[in-house]
Amino acid sequence: QVQLVESGGGSVQAGGSLRLSCVASGRTFSSYAMGWFRQAPGKEREFVAGITRSGGRTDNADSVKGRFTISSNNAKNTVYLQMNSLKTEDTAVYYCAARTASSWSTMVVTTASDYDYWGQGTQVTVSS
């Protein structure tokens, strides 16, 4: 089992940047593929970005392509989400998630139900 703790959320004006961090504890971090999801009030949780267990492949939702970047540091058991050029529609609670994956897997999973572990979420608010 792995425990996930997000940080780095906050309030920012449109056009600004934030970097979210997710620290994992418990089982070996490098055994998991990681993802970021978000949920705005009244909406379903949606995929934002994901990274394979090896870190060799990433994928982003179309709505954040060119603005958000996911990365990981296995030595620090941490996955990051760099968010640039933030828009008001990026306002949501952002969740870090982990799923057990094979070391050879090159597919980024975008479905929330396929992730095994979740953090508590961190609020991101973008104002105009």
General description of the model:
By secondary structure, the protein is mostly beta strands. The chain has strands at 2-7, 10-13, 18-26, 32-39, 46-51, 58-60, 68-73, 78-83, 92-100, 117-118, 122-127. A hairpin with a 4-residue loop joins strand 7 and strand 8. The radius of gyration is 14 Å and the shape is globular. The chain starts with a strand and ends with a strand. The model has no long low-confidence stretch (mean pLDDT 94).
Task: Produce the secondary structure layout.
Layout: E1 2-7, E2 10-13, E3 18-26, E4 32-39, E5 46-51, E6 58-60, E7 68-73, E8 78-83, E9 92-100, E10 117-118, E11 122-127
What is the strand tally?
11
Q: State the helix count.
A: 0
Largest beta-sheet details: 7 strands, mixed
Whole-Å distance between the termini? 40 Å
Helix coverage percent:
under 10%
Strand content: over 45%
What ranges have pLDDT less than 50 throughout 5 or more consecutive residues?
Answer: none
Mean pLDDT: 94
Work out the radius of gyration.
14 Å
Structural class: mainly beta
The gross shape turns out to be globular
Write the element-wise H/E pattern from the N-terminal end onward: EEEEEEEEEEE
Question: Can you summarize this structure?
Answer:
By secondary structure, the protein is an all-beta fold. It has strands at residues 2-7, 10-13, 18-26, 32-39, 46-51, 58-60, 68-73, 78-83, 92-100, 117-118, 122-127.
Task: Spell out the key features of this protein.
0% helix; 11 strands; mainly beta; 7-stranded mixed sheet; 128 residues
